[in-house]
Design goal:
By secondary structure, the protein is an alpha+beta fold. It contains twelve helices and eleven strands. The structure holds adenosine-5'-triphosphate and magnesium ion. The site of adenosine-5'-triphosphate has 22 residues, from α9 and α12.
Length: 468
Amino acid sequence: MFKTIFNKLLITYLIIIIVIISSLSFILSYAYRISIFNEKEESLNFVASKVQKVANEYNDGELSRKELEAYLNSLGYITDSSIYILRLNRNDLENSENLQEVNEFIGGSLIDDLDNVLQDNIVFRKEVYSEALDTFVVFLGVPLKINSEIQGTILIFSSVSQITSSVTGMNLIIWGIAFIALVLSTIFIYINSLRISRPIKIIDDAAKRIASGENTKDIIVTSQDEIGQLALTFNYMKNKLAEIENMRREFIANVSHDLKTPLTSINGFIEAMIDGVIEPENYDESLQIIQEETFRLMKMTNDILELSKIQSGALKLSREHLLVKYLLENIINSTFMGAKHKEVSIELNCQEEAKVYADRDRLKQILINLINNSIKYSSERVCIKIDVANKNESVEFRIKDNGIGIDQDKLKFIFEKFYRADKSRHSKTGGTGLGLSIVKNLIELHGGIIYAESEAGKGTEVIFTIPN
Ligand code: ATP
Ligand code: MG
C-alpha cells in the first residue's frame, strides 16, 4: 500500500488531516458544552436571586402566599424549571421524611447538598438523574436568607434535555462541518498528491521507453520546483544520450568508410596481379601502392585506438618540467618531419626559460603532428615559424605556415574526428582527419587550449597553450 509515492502522500496527509480535524471538533464540542452549562448556571442564579427577593417580600407581608406561589409557578414555567423554597434548619435534615417530595428530584445526595447550602454554600450540579422527572436535571441550591439570616434553602431543578439537545445540535453542526472539511481536504490532497506523483511517473515511463531503445519527445516541464528541475535534467540527459548515439553512428560510418577505401584499393591490385592484368615486371609499383595503403590502414587503426584511449580516460600522462627550447630543437633536428620532395625551413623563436609541466612524449607527438600538417598542407617551399613564450600560468606555442590555408567556414571543424577540409586531397595527402582531434584531446588533458587562425591561400597559424 505504501509502495507508491502517491499512496504515501495521500495516506500521510489524510492521517494528519483526520487527527487535526477530529481533535479540533472534539475540543470545540467540549468547550461548547462547558459554556452552555455555565450559561445555565448563571441564569439559574438569576432566578434564585428573584426568588430570594419575593421570599423576603412574602416574609414582610407584602405578598400573600397565593401570590408567592403564583409567582414561583410562572417563573418556573418561563425558565422551564421547578422552584422550591424550603424553610428549615440543619436539625430538620435528620428527620428527612419531611423532605420526601423534594428528595425524589435528585435522590439520596440531596440531603448532603441541603446541608451544604444551609452552611451558606451554593451548590450547582450539572447532570443528576431525577426520579420525579424521569430525566437528567441541572440543580442549583442557594441559601434562603431572610433579614440576612439563613432560614432555609431555595432549590431549583431544571430539565437538562434542552441543554443536551442544544449540545447535540451543536455537535451535529461541528461534526458536519468537520466531515465536509475532511471530504474537501481529501479531494484537495488527492489532486495535490497526483500533481506531485504524476510527473515522476511520466519521467519513469520515459526512462523505461529510452531503455527499451524507443525515441521519446522532451518531457513538458510545468513547474519550477525540484520535480521541474528533475524533468529538465532528464530532458538534458536524454538529448545528450541521443547526441552520443548519433556521434557513435557517425564514427562507425566514418571508420568503415575510411577502412573500405584502402582495402578496396589493396584488393584491386592483388586481384589484378593474380589475374595477370598487371605484368610481373610492374609488380614493384603495385606492391609499393599496396604497402602505402597498408601503412595508412595501420596509422588509422593506431589513431583510432589512441583517440579512444584518451577519451575513455585510460591514457595517463607522466608529467615533468621540460625546457621547451631544447625539446623543440631536438624535434626539428632529429626528425625533420619526413618532408619528402619539399624544401622546408623552420624558424624557431623560443624564450630560453620557457618551461612546461608536461608529458615529454605526448608534447612531442603534439608538435610533430602540427608541424607535419604545416608541411603536408603547403606547396613546395615550406616556411614554418614557431614562436614560444610564457603567458600567464602557461606557455603559448604558435605554429605558423605559408601553406594552402583553410576556408573560414571550415576552420571551426578541423579539430573534429575524421574532418578533412579538402576531401579530394585525401588519397594524395593520406590524412585520416584524426590528427588534430588527438592533438586537441592531448592538449586538453594537459589543461591547455588550442585554436587556429587561417586565411585560404595564405597560410595557417595554430595556437595552443600548456600549463607550466
Ligand atoms: P591525419 O593528421 O590524421 O593524418 P589530417 O591531417 O587530414 O589527417 P588533421 O590533422 O586532423 O587530419 O587535420 C584536419 C584537416 O584540417 C586537414 O585535413 C586539413 O584539411 C586541415 N588542416 C590541418 N592543418 C592544416 C594546415 N596547417 N594548413 C591547412 N590545412 C590544415
Ligand atoms: Mg594531420
